[in-house]
Amino acid sequence: MHIITPVTQLPSITSPVTLDGYTQPGSSVNTLANGDNAVLLIEINGAILGNNGNALVLLTGGSGSTIRGLVIDNGWSTAILIQTDTVAVEGCFLGTDPTGLIVHANTDGVDADFGQPTSGMRVGGTSLAARNVISGNGTGIFIRSGANQLVQGNFIGTDATGTAALANSNAIDLRSSDNLIGGTSVGARNIIAGNGNSGGISVNTDLVPPTGNRIQGNFIGTDVTGTRPLGLSPGIFLSTGSSQVGGLTAMPGTPPGNVIAGSFTGVVVAQGVSNNTIQGNLIGTDATGTSAPSNLLEGINVQGASNVIGGTDVMARNVISGNGRYGVLMGTDNASVHDNLVQGNFIGTDITGTQLLGNGSDGVFVTVSTNNMIGGHVTTAGEPPGNLIAGNAGNGVALVAGSQTTEISVLGNSIFSNGGLGIDLNGDGVTLNDSCDSDTGANNLQNYPVITSVTATASSTHIQGMLDSTPNTTFTIEFYANAECDASGNGEGRTYLGSAQVTTNASCTATIDTTLPVGLPAGQSLVTATATDPTNNTSEFSHCVSALQLTAAASRKVHGAAGSFDIDLPLMGQPGVECRTGGIDGNHTLVFTFSNDVVSGDASVTSGTGNVSGSPIFSGNTMTVNLTGVTDAQTITITLTNVTDSFGHVLPPTAVSMHVLLGDTTGNGIVNASDIAQTKAQSGSPVTNANFREDVTANGVINGADIALVKSRSGTAISTTQFDAAATRHPQLGR
Ligand SMILES: [Ca+2]
Ligand SMILES: [Ca+2]
Ligand SMILES: [Ca+2]
Ligand SMILES: [Ca+2]
Question: How far apart are the CA of 430 and the centre of ligand 1, in A?
Fold first, then answer.
């Protein structure tokens, strides 16, 4: 080991030189892809001069010089101060001891000095031998001048193994334009992790805001494996200018896309900072895109204008998932946060879009801001500009700050399986519609459409309903299919089906009557809709309406030669009372009628005493369920599940209740003198629709046997609790 510890400043380099520590016998370059095993035997130690000196200074005549294979450590103001162009720094350890495992801090590692013609600098490169370890410094790499500066293949903030943190306070500070950090190949990837509170990569202003900087293909916040977070520091902080984070890629996180995880916030676009693009990155997930080392707070925090997150090209997709709080946070300043686009991203799923990997709160959280677009006008469901926003613990999209947050369009996305609502205006759960929609708040609390009916075939979907909103205004209604509804009965929007334009009349009402040329996706029989006004205020999602509905239920018995008669079992409100005998086994037959022909499904008794006997029988649009063992004087509930029509539409689980009280011909929940009198009055009359309840023996005649049976039950009743409680039960699911 040759340790040079200058007592005075070394002479500046004023002509092109190659200082190559690898010429020292016994030294060798790095050969590891996932580490740095370089053996460095020349050390320039700042122990004496310390912060009063710079180890190497390259002046104008030194253009084209190469610095290789040196350890420059232990207190220098700057390890390599560059004031000329086309300087290469490769295979060095700057800020660590010769093992690359212990901090020997300098103030700065590499500094392309302010006000100097330093263009064309290269720190590292795409070959393994070119890798620098730049760790333990104040600022690892300070680019204050020049253009076309390359920083590639380095470990910045880690030790030589790439698996442990040796923090720089600040990894890379970019203050000039048109530089490239990383690149489009794996070999260009920098590992930028384990750094201090000031940051991973920051873009700042010296004289003018820098533009055209590209940050591509790096692991930011993870170790060299891309799977493990390393320390916790800011990821990318764009405090000024316009930069490109990532780029178009076939696979998010693959160069030019970055992996950004293990940071406080993955990418911050600071207040008033505009025209940045963030594309092709994995933000919050590891390099596989399937698990989440996570950023502590947001994936992306946007506080400026005209920034693009993702885009209309599928290759622009970011995966923004598994972050501690919001996937994307946008806002806090109405004047400067506008015209941002969030398009084509996966927010809350893994890289395949098939596994949920939700963010800790809302997928997209929009506060004080205006005129931003989440999604856009899509032609193919599931394709950009629509985002996939699923699996987030909070809402899919939340708009808060009341009327300070307006004109936020949420269009063409796939939003499902979020813990809260698909879209929540005002961040307070379902916001009910108001007549003529004059209320104010986030997105003006735009009213959502009311769907009244959905009928669908394999290739078309007919949706009817209405919108109550601002009079004499044209709205875009978007329709979506879903597999499930929120607990509120309102839905999200899993599969975009299409849209329609409707115009309200002077009385604030527009009729929706639209036939879309698509069927509903398998397993997604529930339709929802949003309304968006001419200034891009989108509503919450509507109530869900199923394409397959239960339209009627009845308890049916054959009354001998008089034929069969049904006791209606209303689908809402007080259940019907079956007053006819079920025989000693308590047998009854229920017939359910649907909006379409049905082919399969299940029924079970979910409260009360009794059992389903055998399999349901399907015929046309009916399903017949036989019950046995049904005891008297009770309320029994039958729940239908997985009822499927001939198009594959599935009924949401639906419950129907029936009071069972033998002899209660009046249907009031008690057997008494009124029932006896009513039966006596019909005795001897033919059995008809008007009096079949008095044929309690269900044999086709009303006679003394019926009177005797009613008398024998006198005094029995449905418990008041059940009779009353049932009357106020909630409407069935899915209606
Ligand atoms: Ca709301
Ligand atoms: Ca409203
Ligand atoms: Ca009665
Ligand atoms: Ca009878």
Answer: 4
**With the C-alpha atoms ordered 513, 514, 519, 521, is the resulting torsion angle positive or negative?**
negative
How far does residue 729's CA lie from ligand 2's centre (Å)? 28
Distance 428 CA to ligand 1 centre (A): 4
In the chain, CATH 2.60.40.1220 sits at 550-727
- Evaluate whether 53 touches 77 at the Cβ level (below 8 Å): yes
* Delimiting residues of CATH 2.60.40.10 domain(s) in the chain: 443-546
DSSP state of 317: P
Q: Which amino acid is at 278?
A: I
Measure the CA–CA gap between 731 and 719, rounded to whole angstroms: 21
pLDDT digits (tens, 9 = 90+) for 25-81: 999 999 999 999 999 999 999 999 988 899 999 999 999 999 999 999 999 999 999
* Ligand with the closest atom to the CA of 405: 1
For the CA atoms of the chain, what is the radius of gyration? 36
* Ligand found nearest the CA of 431: 1
CATH number of 443-546: 2.60.40.10
Residue 530: closest CA among 476, 457, 486, 484: 476
Burial class (CB in 10 A: 0-12, 13-18, 19+), 70: buried
Question: Taking a C-beta distance cutoff of 8 angstroms, is the pair 499, 480 a contact?
Answer: no
* DSSP run (H or E) holding 557: strand 550-558
- Identify residues whose C-beta is under 5 A from ligand 2, the ion: 434, 437, 439, 445, 447
Token code pair at residue 671 = 């057997």
| Torsion angles phi and psi, residue 33, rounded to 5 | -75, -40
3-state secondary structure of 245: strand
Which ligand is located closest to the Cα atom of residue 686?
4
Ligand closest to Cα of 682 equals 4
Cα–Cα distance between 588 and 566 in angstroms, integer?
11
Separation of CA 355 and ligand 1 centre (Å) = 27
Cα–Cα distance for residue pair 138/405, rounded to 1 Å: 40
On whether the CB atoms of residues 461 and 513 are closer than 8 A, the answer is: no
In whole angstroms, give the CA distance from residue 591 to residue 142. 78
Q: What is the rounded CA–CA span in Å between residue 218 and residue 204?
A: 19
Question: What does 56-109 look like in DSSP terms, one character per residue?
Answer: EEE-GGGTT-EEES-EEESS-SEEEEE-SSS-EEES-EESB-TTSSSB---SEE
465-518 tens-digit pLDDT: 999 999 999 999 999 999 999 888 898 999 999 999 999 999 999 999 999 999
The answer to whether residues 706 and 676 touch, using CB atoms and an 8 Å cutoff, is no
pTM: 0.90
Contacts of 179 (CB under 8 A, 6+ apart): 143, 146, 147, 148, 149, 150, 151, 210, 212, 213, 214
d(CA 454, CA 496): 15
709: enclosing H helix or E strand: helix 704-713
Fold type of domain 550-727:
Immunoglobulin-like (2.60.40)
Residues measured by CB to lie within 5 Å of ligand 1, the ion: 424-426, 428, 431
Q: In sequence order, what are the residues at sequence separation of 6 or more whose Cβ sits closer than 8 angstroms to the Cβ of residue 188?
A: 126, 152, 153, 182, 216, 217, 255
Closest CA to 441 of 487, 402, 407: 402
Ion ligand 3, residues whose Cβ is below 5 A away:
664, 666, 668, 675
